[in-house]
Amino acid sequence: MPQALVLAVTADGALRPVTAELLAAAARVGDPAAVLVCDPAERDTLVTALGAAGATTVLVAAPPAGAPLLTGELAALTAAVTATGDVSAVLIESTFDGRELAGRLAVRLDSGVLAESTDVELLDGQVVVTQPAFGGAYSVRWTTTRGVPVITWRGNSIEDTAAPADAPAVVELTVEAPAPAPTVLEEHHEPVGDRPELTAASVVVSGGRGVGSAEKFTVVEQLADTVGGAVGASRAAVDAGFYPAQFQVGQTGTSVSPQVYIALGISGAIQHRAGMQTSKTIVAVNKDPDAPIFEIADFGVVGDLFTVAPQLTEALAER
Ligand SMILES: Cc1cc2nc3c(=O)[nH]c(=O)nc-3n(C[C@H](O)[C@H](O)[C@H](O)COP(=O)(O)OP(=O)(O)OC[C@H]3O[C@@H](n4cnc5c(N)ncnc54)[C@H](O)[C@@H]3O)c2cc1C
């Protein structure tokens, strides 16, 4: 069986939950294998974790001089692995970095990107993915016409897991130092808090323009913290400076698919829906009964979010 390659996602020496989901998706279309770029000190722990998550093979590379690989280098490495093996698909988490990597990789492989995938299957030997289209109003199934498909995967889309592999085969990869070596002019680290990441959270509480100010966003944060959720924001809230851009949900932000999505003071424009419509349960609080968000909400409260959200926070905290 061909291998289905997964780009392992790690943080602080541990696998991020999306990696197990990527491996479960990979198992549907091939023998799940993981490409792992990590510090040698973290390697054994991560290989064991990848095996437990279903990787039958782990292809390991250590970044030269301990510096993280730039996206171009990672694309070159993954392209080399893909070109020399029998590979049915490459699966990458759909994040800003993941999407950039996918594009570069598809060019190198002369194939195509199947973006924002939420399901994958083999049909007559062809890898076919499902993707929400037109803001989630339609689901489309599509494939590439040539080459190894590069799939960007929307986290929290499937719940199955791959069968664990007790002792995954380990293949060492060599990273060629690029010539000329790139110069890093500036490093920017996103602030990391105690909240789960947007794409991994099972509950996301988002605030929109209706929240009114950056200070008042605490009402959104308090509700999120009560349920261990992540905080999101609409683009209008981001553009108004209420919340940082990295938390924007939607077509030009992050796509999320949590178990529960709570929208506070968000009208439900199609560009916002594009990033949250696949959430399992949608709860909306809006003072306008005609707000489009209510068309897709499973539970809706017509009311002032500053009255409703604190009561919800209190009731949940009691439980
Ligand atoms: C190319 C393009 C890409 C875009 N990408 C994105 C994207 O990625 N994500 C995104 O979100 N948008 C995106 N947008 C913008 C999108 O079209 C909307 O403008 C935006 O989503 C509106 O945000 P909002 O719902 O917070 O604000 P508004 O549409 O202004 O809605 C605010 C809502 O809050 C309600 N409200 C006000 N006060 C209260 C209160 N006290 N209690 C309860 N409810 C209250 C109002 O009734 C209203 O429904 C994009 C637009 C374009 C053109």
UniProtKB/TrEMBL annotation:
GO terms for molecular function: electron transfer activity; flavin adenine dinucleotide binding. Keywords: FAD, Flavoprotein. Binds 1 FAD per dimer. GO terms for biological process: fatty acid beta-oxidation using acyl-CoA dehydrogenase. Gene3D superfamilies: HUPs, TPP-binding domain. It comes from the Bacteria. InterPro entries: DHS-like_NAD/FAD-binding_dom, ETF_a/b_N, ETF_a/FixB, ETF_asu_C, Rossmann-like_a/b/a_fold. FAD binds at residues 209, 234-235, 248-252, 265-272, 286. Residues 4-187 form the Electron transfer flavoprotein alpha/beta-subunit N-terminal domain. Its cofactor is FAD. SUPFAM superfamilies: Adenine nucleotide alpha hydrolases-like (SSF52402), DHS-like NAD/FAD-binding domain (SSF52467). The electron transfer flavoprotein serves as a specific electron acceptor for other dehydrogenases. It transfers the electrons to the main respiratory chain via ETF-ubiquinone oxidoreductase (ETF dehydrogenase). Belongs to the ETF alpha-subunit/FixB family. Heterodimer of an alpha and a beta subunit. This is Electron transfer flavoprotein subunit alpha/FixB family protein. It comes from Nakamurella leprariae. The lineage of its organism: Bacteria, Bacillati, Actinomycetota, Actinomycetes, Nakamurellales.
